[in-house]
Specification:
The protein has 11 helices and no strands. The chain is mainly α and about 230 residues long. It has 3 domains: about 70 residues, no CATH class; about 90 residues, no CATH class; about 60 residues. Helix 2 packs antiparallel against helix 3 and helix 7 packs parallel to helix 9. The radius of gyration is 24 Å and the shape is extended.
Length: about 230
């Protein structure tokens, strides 16, 4: 039985005298694709209600996984994002009917990690910036998320070079990875290429295969170098 069918049955059951908070969370999970805010608020309320033991679950995350079909990673992002929205821009929630720009939970999660917001387990994010944000940078990030509604990709392109600058080794690894992907695609295309002599195709395949192998070895060497730099 799929998660949607399970939730449909659970909702029908809870609507006949079930726990109100549990029913609200189940309905929000059903509507999650349409409204992340409703799902996030339901999770926060269910967590605060702290009745998951009464519902037959050992932990809150067990309840989320087994009943709502939500894994820890998404629960973490949703709850942290909702809390950040409440704290940093409560007017967004108050004026939802006034054509307010509501950031996606992915963009809010980026903001939370960039500002060092604790995760739901109380630990700092493992990919926080290397240093504290200056007031100017913090304002730029706030405007990009809450006022301009930037997508996660736009945020990464704009702020990652400042918040999480790559080392020369990391830059080379990224370039090498792209080259490996390109050689793999080229080898696949050479297998189906028409109108070119067999000798030319064979020569090209040998050359690209050798390049692919050398780039693979380079990636291995770079992984070792990167690990040494971390130590």
């Amino acid at each position: 039985m799929g998660s949607i069918q399970k939730l449909t049955g659970l909702i029908a059951e809870l609507e006949h005298g079930g726990d109100h908070t549990r029913l609200y969370a189940a309905k929000a999970a059903f509507n999650f694709k349409h409204s992340w805010l409703e799902m996030a608020q339901a999770l926060v309320e269910a967590h605060h209600a702290n009745r998951f033991v009464d519902w037959g679950y050992d932990t809150f995350l067990d309840y989320c996984d087994m009943e709502l079909g939500l894994k820890k990673a998404i629960v973490d992002k949703l709850m942290v994002s909702f809390n950040v929205l409440q704290q940093a821009a409560p007017h967004k929630l108050e004026d939802m009917g006034q054509a307010e720009v509501i950031p996606s939970y992915q963009s809010l999660d980026y903001y939370a990690r960039a500002t060092g917001e604790l995760r739901i387990d109380g630990c700092p994010p493992n990919d926080a910036p290397y240093g504290d944000l200056s007031p100017e940078l913090n304002q730029q990030l706030y405007d990009a998320v809450f006022e301009q509604g930037c997508t996660p990709k736009q945020l990464r392109d704009r702020f990652d070079p400042v918040l999480r600058p790559k080392t020369p080794t990391e830059e080379q690894k990224e370039h090498t990875k792209k080259t490996i992907a390109t050689t793999r695609r080229l080898l696949e295309q050479l297998e189906t290429l028409d109108g070119i002599s067999h000798d030319t195709i064979d020569t090209a395949k040998r050359a690209v295969t050798r390049l692919h192998e050398e780039m693979d070895q380079l990636m291995t060497d770079l992984d070792i170098l990167a690990a040494a730099e971390e130590d």
